[in-house]
Amino acid sequence: MSVKVRFAPSPTGKLHVGNVRTALVNWLFAKGQGGSFVLRIDDTDLARSTQEFEDGIETDLTWLGLVWDERYNQSKRFDRYEEAAARLKASGRLYPCYETSDELDRRRKVQLSRGLPPIYDRAALELTEAEKAAYEAEGRRPHWRFKLDGKRVAWEDLARGHAEVDTASMSDPVLIREDGLFLYTLPSVVDDIDMDITHIIRGEDHVTNTGAQIEIFEALGAKVPGFAHMPLLVGADGAALSKRLGSLSISDMRDQGYEPIAITSHLGKIGTSDNLEIAASVEALGAAFAFSKMGRSPARYDTADLDRLNAQALHGMTYAEAQPRLAALGVDLGEVFWDTVRGNLNKFADVADLARIVTGPVTPVIEDPAFAAAALEVLPEVIDAGAWSAWTTAVKEKTGAKGKGLFMPLRLILTGQAHGPDMAAMAPLIGREAIVRRLKGEAA
Ligand code: GLU
Question: 148 and 296: one domain?
Fold first, then answer.
């Protein structure tokens, strides 16, 4: 059976680097094996889900190159969840409970004060039909809990190796709230069964859920898929990123000018034994991906690494790739220009400043007017590819300046800046007329 995975975000917020890493690893694993990738919008919570967040998820995944093969909304599948719930009720695995949250709180406090684990005591299982009818008559509506087997659930985790959860130490999970809302646990299993999902890949914060969900797969008579639980992201300081994830949204990163391939290369390689290097494409990342390369230690998310990868992506970008974007910014000055400046870019938009060196106006920085005048006197008639070398040799002979004392003043005069691209290549692009005016101290 070919691999089929799913990314299942809830449209209750923007995608951030944490959930995009989950999406990416699912995608890489599937594509690396010729499998397929399902986008499933977990929108059972109609009150908190919005169309805007859902659209944002699609925009972000598309921008990152994580194209999906199938797409579903949980909100369109409630009848399937009802059917599964009916089956679980019929087999006695889903049972009604009438406790209010205050009552449950009080019971937990009593358990804790006695040194007992605060797990649900299954009092509702003892209710007689008459007692249930009395609650209903009072106007109480039941919530529904899944009766766990209370055994050790074990699986071979692709990322963690042998994994076990003892469901005897857990409360029976609530699958349906008293207002009828299906919580995430059951719909997720129903979908994974209906959609023939072969592997569930998600963060290690879901390990406990997996224990309960494996029991639900079994209770519904379905084959249990494979699982991979990835170590969570930590920041450069080693502290968990979870609280800061909200400020690391993909749409913000797009606005800040990050290249999608820098983001995917970074998120696809942190926490693995691969070097942090820019990938040629997200497909190439998929071909190189393997869970065996993923360690159990947390993945370090460091913006400095992302910045380095972003620069690497730009330094290797061909003119053909860059051209439409240069044109859109109104700074398409040709292939020679692009090849001259791309090595100086950290963000694509930096190219606009470098284009201004060519198109002007540049305010020349002249520290020694006599030097500028001498340089103008020996300026070659034609500024071609070889002109810079001939000119600087001549300026050196005429003024005695050399090394940095020769090149820095020329750079400051011609570009107005102390750093920038190779001047030998820039000079012909700037052109003789502008060079003359800048040497004379005119903004040109
Ligand atoms: N909607 C769930 C979440 O975002 C999906 C978890 C899963 O992958 O099963 O946490």
Answer: no
Ligand 1 centre and the CA of 41: distance in Å? 9
Q: How many angstroms is it from 97 CA to the middle of ligand 1?
A: 25
Does the C-beta of 190 come closer than 6 Å to ligand 1? no
Q: Tally the domains of the chain.
A: 5
Residue 402 annotated as binding site: no
> Residue 172: pLDDT above 90?
yes
Question: What is the per-residue pLDDT for 218?
Answer: 98
- CB of 10 within 6 A of ligand 1: the answer is yes
Confidence check: pLDDT of 1 > 80: no
pLDDT band at 186 (very low <50, low <70, confident <90, very high): very high
Are residues 188 and 59 part of one domain? yes
**Residue 256 clears pLDDT 90, i.e. is over it:** yes
The pLDDT value given to residue 297: 82
Ligand 1 within 6 A of CB of 213: no
Cα separations in angstroms, 92 against 88, 110, 145, 189, 272: 6, 28, 10, 18, 44
1-5, 83-87, 223-227, 318-322: which range is least confident on average?
Answer: 1-5
Q: Which atom of ligand 1 is least distant from the CA of 19? A: 4
Based on the fold, state whether residues 87 and 100 are members of the same structural domain. yes
Determine whether the shortest distance from the Cβ of 319 to ligand 1 is under 6 A. Answer: no
Q: Which of 359, 390, 417 is the last residue of a domain?
A: 359
Domain containing 381 — which CATH number? Answer: 1.10.10.350
Cα(157)–Cα(200) distance, integer angstroms: 10
pLDDT the model gives residue 245: 82
- Is there a domain that residue 364 lies in? no
For residue 16, report the distance from its CA to the centre of ligand 1, in Å. 14
Confidence grade of residue 17 (pLDDT, cut at 50, 70, 90): very high
**Domain boundary residue, one of 281, 297, 315:** 315
What percentage of the chain carries pLDDT values higher than 70? 100
Residue 314 contacts residue 341 (beta carbons within 8 Å): no
What is the pLDDT, as a whole number, of residue 135? Answer: 96
Return d(Cα 370, Cα 43) in angstroms, integer: 72
Assess contact for 30 and 36: CB atoms under 8 A: yes
Residue 154 CA: distances (Å) to CA of 167, 211, 226:
10, 8, 11
Q: Is the CB of 184 under 6 A from ligand 1?
A: yes
- Residue 155 belongs to domain spanning: 80-176
CB of 188 within 6 A of ligand 1: the answer is yes
Number of other residues whose CB lies within 10 A of the CB of residue 80: 15
Radius of gyration of the chain from its Cα atoms, rounded to whole angstroms: 31
pTM of the model: 0.93
Task: Indicate whether residue 9 lines ligand 1 (CB < 6 A).
Answer: yes
Question: Whose CA is closest to atom 10 on ligand 1?
Answer: 9
